[in-house]
């Protein structure tokens, strides 16, 4: 059996324990958002069953002397997907990433001990609640396992799931990061635009369009001529590209968003009268200040 995090076995000889979290999710009622579920090892169900946050909250109501460690539950959910240190594979998610860190051990122990305490509690309410928690099979409403590539956020837009995002190595910059990058570029493109030359802004990993959105905002603020500005955006995630298109769809500038690997593209729009190219982003696409000579 998987490691039980150093806890003592209960009277049934088989420990209720959290094995993993976030490899399966449940849809939140009346919204399109999802929330990670927990894989719990229960008596007679050694491979574990998926349980929702609501399942834990119901257990937390039965005995005031056994409060649910809500902070631990939230921390473990926020850090998902992960599996315990001795859990080699998780059913329904054999190739999923693992975000487990030793700092999670205390939260995991608190949740395990909560389950053990409820399983031993002799009150009628606790016994009924525990029997309901231990019902065979997963909790109702799970998102199908084969839908790991795409999810729907609270606004109804399709977004790439955390699992696929991890496999793609995605990192989305903050608004402050985007502002700093664009500030640096705008200062260097002012001279180019002021003498009538054209500027081509290149975003090789546009993501949801955070940097492009800030670029458009600052170009508008400086009243950059529409005829002198072109923007090309690339990303290998089609959901991110679609999100970027929506982000900048109202812009007055010429913006092309393409779902392809920038490193494999061949842009043929450059000639003797080519615009000055400004590349926005970080390594491996940009290193150093570039060359404006």
Task: Write up what this structure looks like.
The protein contains 8 helices and 10 strands. It has helices at about 55-60, 70-80, 105-120, 125-135, 160-170, 175-195, 210-220, 240-250; strands spanning about 15-25, 35-40, 45-50, 80-85, 150, 160, 200-205, 230-235, 255-260, 275-280. Helix 7 links the parallel strand 7 and strand 8. The protein is elongated and about 80 Å long. The chain starts with 16 loop residues before the first strand and ends in a 14-residue tail after the last strand.
Key structural traits:
alpha/beta, 293 residues, disordered N terminus, elongated, 4-stranded parallel beta sheet, 4-stranded antiparallel beta sheet
In short:
By secondary structure, the chain is of the alpha/beta class. It has helices at 53-59, 70-78, 105-120, 124-133, 162-168, 175-194, 210-221, 238-248; strands spanning 17-27, 34-42, 45-51, 82-83, 150-152, 158-160, 199-203, 229-235, 254-259, 276-279. Strand 8, helix 8 and strand 9 (254-259) form a beta-alpha-beta unit.
Shape: elongated
List SSEs in N-to-C order: EEEHHEHHEEHHEHEHEE
Gyration radius, rounded: 25 Å
Largest beta sheet, briefly? Answer: 4 strands, antiparallel
Please state the structural category. alpha/beta
Helix fraction, binned, reads 25-40%
Number of strands: 10
Percentage beta strand = 15-25%
Measured distance between first and last alpha carbons: 65 Å
Average pLDDT figure: 80
Task: Tell me the number of helical segments per DSSP (H or I, 4 or more residues long).
Answer: 8
Low-confidence stretches: 1-14, 152-156
The main sheet orders its strands as: 3-2-1-4
């Amino acid at each position: 059996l998987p490691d039980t995090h150093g806890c003592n076995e209960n009277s049934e000889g088989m420990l209720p324990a959290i094995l993993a979290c976030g490899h399966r999710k449940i849809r939140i009622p009346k919204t399109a958002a999802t929330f990670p579920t927990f894989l719990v090892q229960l008596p007679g169900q050694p491979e574990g069953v998926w349980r929702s946050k609501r399942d834990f909250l119901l257990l937390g109501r039965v005995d005031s002397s056994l409060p649910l460690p809500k902070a631990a539950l939230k921390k473990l959910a926020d850090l998902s997907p992960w599996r315990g240190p001795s859990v080699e594979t998780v059913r329904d998610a054999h190739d999923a990433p693992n975000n487990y860190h030793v700092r999670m051990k205390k939260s995991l122990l608190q949740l395990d001990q909560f389950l053990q305490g409820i399983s031993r509690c002799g009150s009628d309410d606790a016994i009924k609640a525990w029997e309901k928690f231990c019902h065979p099979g997963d909790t109702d409403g799970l998102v199908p396992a084969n839908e790991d590539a795409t999810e729907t956020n609270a606004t109804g837009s399709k977004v790439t799931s955390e699992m696929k995002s991890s496999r793609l190595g995605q990192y989305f910059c903050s608004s402050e990061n985007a502002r700093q990058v664009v500030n640096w570029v705008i200062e260097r493109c002012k001279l180019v635009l002021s003498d009538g030359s054209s500027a081509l802004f290149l975003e090789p990993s546009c993501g949801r369009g955070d940097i492009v959105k800030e670029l458009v905002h600052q170009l508008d603020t400086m009243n950059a001529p529409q005829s002198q500005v072109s923007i090309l955006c690339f990303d290998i995630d089609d959901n991110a590209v679609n999100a970027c298109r929506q982000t900048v769809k109202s812009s007055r500038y010429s913006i092309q968003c393409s779902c392809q690997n920038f490193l494999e593209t061949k842009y043929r729009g450059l000639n003797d009268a080519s615009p000055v190219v400004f590349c926005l982003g970080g390594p491996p696409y940009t290193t150093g200040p570039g060359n404006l000579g």
